[in-house]
């Protein structure tokens, strides 16, 4: 039996990341899960009123689980730049004003760091991933709209990817700040990739999805969450 899970996002790139990572961690058992976006489920976007990544991830997952009666997953991820006092942080996706405008967010970040030398552009991506699982209350209610009687099990896992901000964008893979972020961990990079990049470290956007997933903040959080998915399977 396939278990449908709502992922509180409109970003199908996140769905693909989740599927790739769980397939690596769980093997054939990952095929038991079907992931749909909140857009697929016709859900409104809840207000992200939390002040931490963990709070916002739980807020979004709880809302989706309560509205659909399905297990729901959400992450809240962001870029933390040390010299900027840990900004953009939870405001990463709307740093330039409009939510999800990657080009504008990248351009603003580069402008703000224009006078900062490469040696002081240390940063890290952080992710909090939440899974909220509704349980049948014995009367047929499983958290669907209007039942109001379900109980929930909640899990939260976190992950980080340290690195630095490049002087200019490079690469076309990924999304968000990937073209600007140079991970410290370059162990997955091939000799051919290094040669093609003139010996310079790669940005996240220059890596393949598989390479990025192996070291990413979201990858770390989802891999930690895989054990909880195993309990659902």
UniProtKB/TrEMBL annotation:
User: Which GO molecular function entries does the Swiss-Prot or TrEMBL record give?
Assistant: dITP diphosphatase activity; ITP diphosphatase activity; metal ion binding; nucleotide binding; ribonucleoside triphosphate phosphatase activity; XTP diphosphatase activity
Keywords linked to the UniProt accession: Hydrolase, Magnesium, Metal-binding, Nucleotide metabolism, Nucleotide-binding
Cofactors: Mg(2+)
Q: Which GO terms describe its cellular component?
A: cytosol
Give positions of region: Disordered.
185-212
Q: Where does substrate bind?
A: 9-14, 77, 175-178, 212, 217-218
GO terms for biological process?
Answer: nucleotide metabolic process; purine nucleoside triphosphate catabolic process
Q: Where does Mg(2+) bind?
A: 76
Q: Which residues form the active site?
A: 76 (proton acceptor)
Query: Which E.C. number(s) belong to this protein?
Result: 3.6.1.66
What this protein is called in its record is dITP/XTP pyrophosphatase
**Organism annotation:** Scardovia wiggsiae F0424
């Amino acid at each position: 039996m396939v278990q449908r899970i709502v992922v509180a996002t409109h970003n199908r790139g996140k769905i693909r990341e989740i599927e790739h990572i769980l397939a690596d961690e769980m093997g054939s058992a990952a095929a038991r899960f079907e992931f749909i976006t909140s857009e697929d489920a016709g859900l409104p976007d809840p207000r992200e009123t939390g002040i931490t990544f963990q709070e916002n991830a739980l807020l979004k997952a709880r809302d989706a689980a309560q509205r659909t009666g399905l297990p729901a997953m959400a992450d809240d991820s962001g870029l933390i730049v040390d010299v900027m006092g840990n900004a953009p942080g939870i405001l990463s996706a709307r740093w330039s004003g409009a939510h999800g405008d990657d080009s504008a967010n990248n351009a603003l970040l580069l402008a703000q760091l224009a006078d900062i030398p490469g040696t002081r552009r240390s940063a890290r991506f952080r992710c909090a991933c939440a899974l909220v699982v509704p349980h049948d209350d014995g009367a047929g209610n499983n958290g669907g709209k209007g039942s109001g009687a379900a109980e929930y099990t909640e899990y939260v896992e976190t992950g980080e990817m340290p690195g630095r901000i490049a002087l200019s964008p490079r690469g076309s893979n990924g999304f968000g700040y990937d073209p600007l972020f140079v991970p410290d961990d370059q162990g997955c990079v091939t000799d051919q990739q290094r040669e093609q990049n003139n010996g310079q470290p790669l940005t996240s956007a220059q890596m393949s999805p598989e390479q990025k997933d192996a070291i990413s903040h979201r990858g770390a959080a989802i891999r930690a969450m895989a054990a909880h998915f195993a309990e659902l399977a």
